[in-house]
Every structure is written in C-alpha cells, then in structure tokens.
Amino acid sequence: MRLADKVTIITGAGGGIGSGLVRRFAESGAKLCLTDYNLEAVERLCDRLALPDDQALLLQHDVADAASWEEVVRRTCERFGRLDVLVNNAGVAARTGQPYDAIEFEDWRRVMSVNLDGVFLGMSAAARAMHRTGGGSIVNIGSTAGLSGTNGGAAYGTSKGALRTLTKQAAYSFAIHGYDIRVNIIHPGYVWTDFVRASASARYGSEEEALKVMTAEVPLGRMIEPDDIAWPAVYFASDEARNVTGSELIVDGGRRCRP
Known about the structure:
Layout: E1 7-10, H1 16-27, E2 31-36, H2 39-49, E3 56-60, H3 66-80, E4 85-88, H4 105-132, E5 136-141, H5 154-176, E6 181-188, H6 194-204, H7 207-215, H8 226-237, E7 248-251
Parallel strand pairs: 1-2, 1-4, 2-3, 4-5, 5-6, 6-7
Helix pairs in contact: 1-8, 3-4, 4-5, 6-7
GO molecular function, one term: oxidoreductase activity, acting on the CH-OH group of donors, NAD or NADP as acceptor
Family: Belongs to the short-chain dehydrogenases/reductases (SDR) family.
Protein name: NAD(P)-dependent dehydrogenase (Short-subunit alcohol dehydrogenase family)
C-alpha cells in the first residue's frame, strides 16, 4: 500500500473534503488520527467507513488553539509511536458578495485564526514530532480563491493566499535545516460536497440547475469531487513524492486556464 502504516493526522476530517481524505488515506494503509471541531461528524464518518479501532484515533480539536495542537500530536505519538504525515484540511468560509468595506474585523479574524494561524500552529507542533523520528510530509489544503480576487472574498481568499506563501516558506526552512519534512499545497476549485450542493441548490433553485450552471464554468465539464483532492494528497504524503516540496497543485477542472 502507498501509505502503509504511515501515521497521519487529518484535520477537518468530518467535512466534505475531509471525508474523501479519510477514505483514501485509510484505503492506502495509513494509521489515522482524525480531528474535527465537531467530533460527532468524524464518528459518523468512521461508522460509515467501518474503520477498525486500531487504525483510527478520533479527537475533538480546535486548530486555532496551540494547546489543542500539542495535545493532538502528543496523543497521536502515544497511540502510534510516531508522526509521519499531517494534512491541514480544517477551514472556515466567510460571507461573500459584500463590498470590501463591509467586511467585519471579527469575521476577518475568525477566518484567519482557523485557515492561517491553525496551519502555522499545526506545522510547528507536527514538525517537532516528525524531526525526532527522521522527517515526514505536510499537505496543506488551500483554494483557488487564494490565487486571484473574488467577489467579497477578501478574508477567505487572503487566508488561502497567505497559506500558499506559508507553505513555501516552511518547505524551504525544513529543507535547508535538515528536517527532511516536505510541505506541499493543493488548491481545489469548487468541490461538490454536501455543503456546496445545498447552498448552490438554494441559490439556483434546484440541484439540477446548480450543476448545469456550475459545470458550464468548468472546461472539463464536470464538478470536482472530494476524491479529486484526496488522491493528490495521498501522492504528496507518499514516498513517491520524496523529492517534491514547496509545490502546489491546482485541481479545478481547468477553470484557471480559461482565457
């Protein structure tokens, strides 16, 4: 298996992209610490996937809290003996479509604390554990919203744009200081999760109409699914990518290629 016995922390494991990550990492042989602010969502997912107890540790986790990160890493290492992979998937969105000067600072800070501060804290805590056992791999989940301007998306887009730069800074630092920790980032476009399905269906009047409108914007003509994010993450986490660090992968069906 591509990730046989690699000890992996996945944050935001109970969400739409998270569920795809959990499924494919489990199939690839990883030992999993699955965290989420909403622990019940992770428990339901593990029940559906029938993950054995010896493969998965489930923890409630506030990624914006340094002490919570230290606890997650400590308990992961206690349970499995080491830490090989961290997937920073947890994230929150912000209201869109509003003018820049209508964005509230409280909303700005909420988004930054999870999407950016949470990854900074996670990489720091994970790196200390990985360095003790010879290195590892960190996979950050960004967004195409961080690559250009969006309508009213200053908070979310900025958090993901900063995460893109943070990924490269961490990758370079870990490399030149001999940590042998690789750091890469995946930028999903719109992913057809339950949340997107519900919100888009409400916006366009039906799921059928939502799919029609949204797929028309994708050159490949199909929506992005959670698996489309999970499989690249498996690659970045695996030894196949042993010389890949500081890299980014856009998964958006070709939307960024449009003239």
